[in-house]
Amino acid sequence: MNSTQTMVKMVLDRWYSQIKNFDNILNSITDKQLQKEIAPNKNRGIYLLGHLTAVHDDMLPILNFGDKLYPELNEPFLKLPDKSIIEIPSAKELRGFWSEVNGILTQQCDSLQPDEWFQKHNSVSAEDFSKEPHRNKLNIIITRTNHLSHHTGQLVLIK
Amino acid sequence: MNSTQTMVKMVLDRWYSQIKNFDNILNSITDKQLQKEIAPNKNRGIYLLGHLTAVHDDMLPILNFGDKLYPELNEPFLKLPDKSIIEIPSAKELRGFWSEVNGILTQQCDSLQPDEWFQKHNSVSAEDFSKEPHRNKLNIIITRTNHLSHHTGQLVLIK
């Protein structure tokens, strides 16, 4: 295993492990519990689930894996704070979207060769990338893994 | 910048950015607020601060940077859950320990050459490392960055 393969494995192992950890917590929480706030006057569990789904869905175009599956989640879960829109998808629907988005991400991630992870992603210009080669596809996984950890730390409080 | 340097930069950038983010939140919280629970019947802010300090302090021997500075934090913040011991260091003391531990970690991290990050750390045997080269020093930074993100997501709720 060369150092590029090692690095990709380190980052993807952590990503998959955080997804699995989040899924275990999510599966132990009922739809009713998801309606609760994680702490008084803070986001509800269902908002965190919608927010994470929308952020992971955004990774598809950023990583050149295809179009977003659920652009309708942008407004309620990325642009607006929790409780600004009364009609949002149900917990059951969001669980399905979450699983679908991560399934496609996994499939696409597994198809990339180690070297391809060090290519530029679609949110950086070719000019900027030539000066900042760390703004590559693998870095998207690193930042999104930390984003997921941040909200997993919150979701676990709902139990 | 070669690919090893790029990989190390990606991981360390994220680590330092998470520390800075945590510090900004910590600096915006009073000692009195730190005594509050992050959510009803959950850990107090001061416990999270002690816990993170103890975990980061453990990184010194794991990364071969030297002995732990504050082994007395193991019992109250690693072995035992919150509120099991009445006498713990004050918020003011813990803020100082936290800053001290991260300062030394930064100093030591900055002195490592990119290739050295792919060497084995002290919590893995030479035999295991020969089969699992991803269990290197850089991987410790990746996992601890995610650990920090997890608890940062919680501390921010105290405000």
Outline the fold blueprint.
The structure is a homodimer of 159-residue chains.
Chain A: H1 3-27, H2 31-34, H3 45-62, H4 74-79, H5 91-111, H6 126-131, H7 137-155
Helix pairs in contact in A: 1-7, 3-5, 3-7
Structure description:
Chain A is globular. The longest helix of chain A has 25 residues, at 3-27. With 159 residues, chain A is mainly α. Chain A has helices at 3-27, 31-34, 45-62, 74-79, 91-111, 126-131, 137-155. Chain A is built from seven helices and no strands. The model of chain A has no long low-confidence stretch (mean pLDDT 97). Helix content of chain A is 62%, strand content 0%. In chain A, helix 1 (3-27) packs parallel to helix 7 (137-155), helix 3 (45-62) runs parallel beside helix 5 and helix 3 (45-62) runs antiparallel to helix 7 (137-155). The interface between A and B is medium-sized, with 33 and 33 residues.
List the keywords.
mainly alpha; 159 residues; 0% strand
Brief overview:
By secondary structure, chain A is mostly helical. Chain A is 62% helix and 0% strand.
Give the distance, in angstroms, between the N- and C-terminal Cα atoms of chain A. 41 Å
Order of helices and strands of chain A: HHHHHHH
The radius of gyration of chain A is 17 Å
In terms of quaternary structure, the protein is homodimer
Strand residue content of chain A: under 5%
The biggest beta sheet of chain A is recorded as: none
Extended strand count of chain A:
0
Class from helix and strand fractions of chain A? mainly alpha
Query: Greatest chain-chain interface?
Result: A-B, 33 and 33 residues
> Portion of residues in helices of chain A?
55-70%
> Average pLDDT across residues of chain A?
97
Number of helices of chain A: 7
Note the overall shape of chain A.
globular
Which spans of chain A have pLDDT < 50 for at least 5 consecutive residues?
none
